[in-house]
Amino acid sequence: MENEDRYLHASKPKFECLLFDLDDTLYPLSSGLSVQVTKNIQEYMLLKLGIEEKKVPELCFSLYKDYGTTMAGLRAVGYNFDYDDFHGFVHGRLPYNLLKPDPVLRGLLLSLPIRKVVFTNSDMAHTARVLSRLGLEDCFERIICFETLNPTNKENVPVEEDDTELGVPRSSTISGTNEYMSEPNDSSVLPRTPVICKPFEESFEEVFKIANINPQRTVFFDDSIRNLQTAKRLDLHTVMVGSSQRIEGVDHALESIHNIREALPELWEAEGKSENIAYSGKVAIETYVKA
Ligand SMILES: [Mg+2]
């Protein structure tokens, strides 16, 4: 039995899943798309939420810094709005033609013999358009986006109905929208956001459940240091994309996602191993699931 355990352990590839952020990770910041996203968010704050023009840039940045997304921060401090309306305004008018097909990345992803999942704070429509523009729409096993973790914010919809319809358990922090004011409050204590998103641990834990991910055997790629630091606390192997400077909480740092093979050649080694000992690998996975 002891020998068998040792054999199973030795036969497992080191990593079994790759978890990718979308924006500024699967395409570079230099594309210019993110600048347009910020511009549209600030316009939404000004035109739709009536926030004073001179306060918009700083509030936009500080909420993003504190909550992972400006939208999550706006909800936390008391602004109430429809998520779809926000996403439609912010992403609906983006110049997606800034993104070009990326056959190099496509080739890399398709050659990787490991599960690949997208985990983004963006909404599904935006994610689909970005992946389509990049030519990567068929490179991932599944996409976990804003709607996956935040099924609805429609008022007067019972929570139980959401659960049944979408099959995703709602967090206890989301209990409908009635508790939120339509105007911001002035509390000096940082209020909680009803939005589930990176960099909060809760969002990662939901993703692990939804996609059946073992964090210890997963590599997480993101351009945000806060997201990477949460991921590291949760035992993921972390790769910063967009900078070659390694910071605490980051196992690897890549100037570009195109450098995956140079930085992590072991991801491809799993291919040879799985070919040679495919049967053993299968047994090992089944053992893990039962445990
Ligand atoms: Mg990003």
Automatic annotation (TrEMBL):
Residues 170-187 have a biased composition (Polar residues). Residues 156-187 are annotated as: Disordered. It comes from the Eukaryota. SUPFAM superfamilies: HAD-like. Gene3D superfamilies: HAD superfamily/HAD-like (3.40.50.1000). PANTHER family: HALOACID DEHALOGENASE-LIKE HYDROLASE. This is Ripening-related protein. It comes from Quercus lobata (Valley oak).
